[in-house]
């Protein structure tokens, strides 16, 4: 009986000791050289406690993003002009020469379409062309749809949803086209005395629109060929 009582006493005393040793060990391992008991080092913090300290520059957006791969540099108006002069192909690549004299190629899908459907590209805060010129041509400004290749080619003035309206691409003659006259803006003015596009474009914006990193240098394409 005495032996049973002794074993019971040792058992009851041993459990708390084991628990304390376990808890102390976990605490030591978790808190050693940290500011918390999670085992994870606290990151450096800014004066605003909810923000992790910045170590990299803020990312750029819009037309001024510098690409990771080899690209060509050209203004938006000149790029659209090269596409129109080439006969405005939808899928085939077209040629252009960038600001450094480099021969390059681009495509409508990869390089032209975004100039009509992306906001904040022509200038800071710029609306997309499709904000006003969208698929419902009976309601769209100037009854013009710039949301698709087919809509651009169909032209403006389609008040009753006609399949074809007024050509805005000048039949391939870029500098006589309505589109050129509306987006080329020397001194912040269109060449035909109408409000320059995109809507709200400031007079301080470049006449040829933003500088873009687009297309592919031909020398890169040729080097990639077997």
Explain the overall architecture.
The structure is a single chain. With 226 residues, the chain is an alpha+beta fold. It has two domains: 1-41, no CATH class; 62-224, no CATH class. 30% of the residues lie in helices and 8% in strands. It has seven helices and five strands, in the order H-E-H-E-E-H-H-H-H-E-E-H. The protein has helices at 2-31, 76-85, 108-112, 114-117, 149-154, 178-183, 218-224; strands spanning 72-75, 94-97, 103-106, 211-214, 216-217. It has a three-stranded antiparallel beta sheet. The chain has a two-stranded antiparallel ribbon with strand order 1-4.
Our Rg estimate from Cα atoms comes to: 32 Å
Given helix and strand content, the structural type is alpha+beta
Helix/strand order, N-terminal first: HEHEEHHHHEEH
Residues in helices, as a percent range: 25-40%
How much is the average pLDDT?
A: 80
Number of spatially distinct domains: 2
Number of DSSP helical runs: 7
Strand content range: 5-15%
Strand order of the largest sheet: 2-3-5
Low-confidence stretches: 27-61
Distance between the termini: 94 Å
Q: What kind of sheet is the major sheet?
A: 3 strands, antiparallel
- Shape label: globular
Find the count of extended strands (DSSP E, 2+ residues).
5
Key traits:
226 residues, globular, 8% strand, 30% helix, two-stranded antiparallel sheet
